[in-house]
Design goal:
The complex is a heterodimer of chains A (387) and B (91). Helices cover 42% and strands 17% of the residues of chain A. With 387 residues, chain A is an alpha/beta fold. Chain B is built from no helices and nine strands. Classes of the chains: A alpha/beta (387), B mainly beta (91).
């Protein structure tokens, strides 16, 4: 099975062809927004971070910035920094160049002469880059070039029953065809980490699965939160969830059935052709999706029960629900109606093929509903308050 | 009433609507349909046992253990917090 994508000079294959106007910190975010608004094909996001963060949080921010620039959906990047933030221009540029050799330009607001002077210079550079990007043609590639991200949010009983098993079937198909599928949301592994760990291909992967779950729990305990206490919640139980194992299994089923080949820290660069892997991300949807896209996912499949609007500036997020009422109410936001699967669970293979075809159409350029609405919501994971 | 069995190894299935004791529950997996008579009321999206689950043996959903049976659970029984023990299996 093939899709039409863009070959990048670093060998990776993108499904979009955008110019990233990358704000190195919150102090550059509005300037980046103005630049991006001037140039067709340019995207940006509101970076809330980049300064006054503890070192481990700053690293998360750096990894997301470098990963977004390196994501193969991006033709080239224009970094805009204020000048005095912790995420200094040379650090950001170096982090991007460690990941990719794609076109890169940089502008420092305090050196250019303020916002208007920076907008003038950077807009001209962005326009040139957009023109170069427009000369590229889509070519045919096998789906083995895809790194598919998975996510669930606003879950209800239909998520664990139908939507997540359906996404799991699609992940199996991606893996069996030689691609990479990513299971995320570490907080949702809690209670089923032993089951996931058993699926690791070796002891290292097995131990890493325990490590990321326990590390996450310990971090939350530092501020007095215990994720196991009262979980499953009374609402979960009323909905039919009996144990924490069952709840977590409903979430992790979206990764499918294949052995787990590797565990990546948040936003680290993942490999194509690797099979099923895990990324350590929060259950919070926009920051989990951002971490996987920074890791190189060109496409994300997202299951929802109640109906969430999530999109992303860099990669298409395909949303599906198996709840017929939610699809009816949230048609403007949800791309794929999987509700037939609830009544006819035996048709899962057929529906997985249909979803895979839709994913290929979207990879080949069809807009998702969140793309057509211009959604660029974005969050970067962090463990601590600002300094 | 239909019920969904997710994995071939499962000994429970999820009912897709409210079930009353005495109702017939049908489960289809791999082109094979079986019928079970409900022995208790089961709310929508809750689990029914589809075979006898002896006391202290695993309750299996998604092909994995989600807990242990607290008592012998007859086919067609509502399987939930009243007859399942949470059992953390660490490796």
């Amino acid at each position: 099975m093939n899709f039409l994508g863009y070959k990048r000079p670093d060998g990776r294959v993108g499904v979009r062809n955008k110019i990233l106007i990358l704000p190195a910190s919150i102090c550059a975010a509005d300037t980046a927004r103005i630049i991006a608004s001037q140039v067709d094909g340019a995207v940006t996001f509101h970076n809330q971070n980049g300064c006054a963060q503890i070192p481990s949080d700053q690293q998360l921010t750096m990894d997301v910035m470098a990963g977004f620039a390196a994501n193969p959906n991006i033709y080239g990047t224009i970094v805009v920094s204020l000048g005095c933030e912790n995420c200094q221009m040379d650090l950001v540029v170096e982090a991007i160049q460690e990941r990719t050799n794609k076109p890169l330009r940089q502008f420092i607001i305090q050196e250019c002469g303020g916002t208007i002077a920076t907008v003038e210079k950077a807009t001209r550079a962005a326009r040139e880059m957009a023109q170069e990007a427009s000369c590229l043609q889509r070519e045919e590639f096998p789906i083995s070039e895809l790194i598919l991200g998975t996510e669930c949010g606003g879950s209800d009983p239909t998520s664990g029953l139908a939507s997540n098993p359906l996404i799991g079937e699609v992940c199996d198909r991606i893996v069996d065809n030689g691609g990479t599928a990513v299971l995320s949301e570490t907080t949702e592994f809690i209670g089923a980490e032993h089951i996931l760990a058993r699926r690791g291909i070796n002891k290292e992967v097995h131990d890493r699965i325990y490590e990321i779950v326990h590390r996450y729990e310990e971090a939350l305990k530092l501020v007095g939160a215990d994720t196991r206490e009262g979980n499953p919640s009374p609402g979960n139980k009323a909905g039919g969830i009996t144990t924490l194992e069952e709840k977590s299994l409903g979430c992790i089923h979206k990764g499918g059935h294949r052995p787990i080949q590797n565990v990546y820290d948040y936003a680290k660069q993942m490999e194509a052709h690797e099979g099923l892997v895990i990324m350590d991300t929060p259950g919070n949807d926009p920051s989990s999706v951002a971490g996987m896209i920074a890791g190189g996912c060109q496409v994300v499949v997202f299951s929802t029960g109640r109906g969430t609007p999530t999109g992303n500036p860099i990669a298409p997020v395909i949303k599906l629900t198996a709840n017929p009422v939610t699809y009816g109410k949230m048609k403007d936001n949800i791309d794929f109606d999987a509700s037939d699967l609830l009544e006819n669970p035996e048709t899962i293979d057929e529906m997985a093929d249909t979803l895979l075809n839709e994913m290929c159409a979207i990879a080949s350029g069809k807009m998702t509903k969140s793309e057509s609405l211009g959604y660029i919501e974005m969050a970067i994971a962090r463990v601590c308050n600002y300094v | 009433m239909k019920a969904t069995m997710i994995d071939d190894r499962d000994n429970v299935a999820v009912v897709l609507g409210d079930v009353k004791a005495g109702d017939t529950i049908t489960v289809t997996k791999n082109n094979e349909t079986r019928s079970i008579i409900a022995v208790s009321d089961i709310p929508r999206y809750h689990k029914t046992s589809i075979k006898l689950i002896p006391a202290q043996s695993p309750v299996v959903k998604y092909g994995e253990h989600i807990g242990l049976a607290a008592e012998d659970i007859q086919p067609g029984t509502h399987v939930h917090v009243h007859n399942v023990l949470s059992n953390r299996e660490d490796l």
